[in-house]
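Example record used in the benchmark description.
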Amino acid sequence: MENLQKIANTIRSITIDIIANAGSGHPGMPMGCAELLAYLYGEFMQYHPSEPDWINRDRLILSAGHGALGQFIPLHMAGYDIRIEDLKKHRQGSQKASSHPLYNPTLGIETTTGADGYGIGNAVGIALGQKILAYQFYQEYQHLFDEKIIVIGGDGCFMEGISYEAAQLAGHFKLNNLIIIYDANKVSLDGYIEETCSTDYVGLYQAMGFDVYTINGHDLLQIANVIGPLRTQQQKPVFIIAETQIGRGLFNRQGTLAAHSEALDLATVENSKLTLKDNEQSWYINPEIYDFFQHKHQIIKDKITLKAKKAPLQEEEIFSALDHFNYSDLDQPGRFLSQEMLNHLAHHFPQIYSGSADSARSDGTWLKNIDFLVAPHYQGRNIKFGVREFAMAAIANGLAQTNKIIPVIGGFMAFSDYLKPALRFAGLMKQQVICSFSHDSIFLGEDGPTHQPVEQLAMFRATPNTLVIRPADSSEIKFAWIIALQHQGPTILALARQTLPHLDIAKDFQNSVKMGAYVVRDTKTPDIVLYASGSEVALALEVYHELKERTFNVRVISVPCIELFDQQTTTYKQSILQHEAKISVSIEAAHNMPWHKFIGTNGIAISLDEFGLSDSSKNIAETFGFTTKKIVNRILSNLLKK
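Model output (structure tokens):
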């Protein structure tokens, strides 16, 4: 235990140096959890800096991402490529020791965290993914999968609803490779926990199917006696309440609100250092600590046998799988056209796992003739997430981080708001998560404005590394799936509840959906250019015929994916953005936010800037101006003004 205490004291000392150097930061968690971190990295966990692709390595996730120094410092001591120079740039531009953990397994950082509670959902996903790998993809090596997924959360993490959502599923799936540690220091950013929370966490987690332990988080012997046996004796997911003192060792601040994130003055630094034996010197790490970790790695090295890197699907593979694919009916609701594609692809690619927030048979994500996933053998590829959108998306990120599973998740577009934070993290980490959202517009009808999306498309289009594809018919849906299976990042498929007529517009993948926007009806010198996406492309074509009869030259452009269009060459984009026309018009039953790049400041956006209503889709179209007659009249009126 002497070496582990040295590591704990060094974590505290270097934390003080880093926070003082940066002039800001969060010393409370790494100093309060120093013994826990020392035991996990120094004794319990199985990992190796030179083998980041070791499949069954242990993983430590900081759901309390503000405590990132609690990862960066021991990772540096353990030999990962995080140098003292990187630690000195913490919160000052460092990409290896940033303010919160950023996904980089090569550095031992297993996921991106920062929003309270998210890491717990992500850890449940990784733990479930590891079970699937062991039982489905590497059955002959199943005996090697003894890894543990450990997540440390703070008081705030366990107040966030996602921790409860995810823990319910962890208990349901009997994830005996998951260890959740609650850093119970009784302090949050804005006050003491007694002011906001009186939850019985022992009873709560036992009720959700966990084994629960309470320990003194500063007592290395207690820590070892509880966590150590879990390597071989864990039967259920485990919840450990580690009672700690925030900022332990921080002069005049330990156990107080000030320890969380207030800047350190010189007196606090100097007096704190005096209490840390052998660590008074700034930036000092005893060479014995480096030797300790090197010895640990030599022992671990012999256990490393199973490694794998991610092998993304190639376009040729996907086209080959589609050689003999034909829709049963070309005129179907978009969600069911998508379901036919998904089912065909899932039977060719066993890495596709699909799940929904209790709406799989409605949103089109159910894999037919395939079982749903159950413990303890984790067979089946339909995952029933229940009504838990946020946890579903966080777990999907974890599944994607196995580098083997391609998760597809579904729900109604309006309720994607519940899972947006997790999809943001998927974008940050560039994780391949495919979101199949049905009921994509006001035209779902009588369910009314609570279920009718308006602002969601714009929200997702504004999210970096994310593709939003809103297909117009069966051909665009087919090509959308080809793109989604290749994109290294989240893809949003916005699918219509209502029937989409087969338009036969996307005949060539390379020159249609893959370009993001493409011409479907053309003329040499257009008077009017119509841009549309999804179900409104059919409406744009009706408008086209009406205007053509009135002798106008009209060009129609389908825009299934604005993000892909933005990636094209300047020449191609200029060929689509025809601002020399008399007028440009966008037609999409959603907020107009992205469309002015296409239609210019003087164009017409047929869009929504209000919520919908409960009525038939026909009456809704009439009310909000999404009819051929109303759009033509609006265009003609605008032309007369000119």
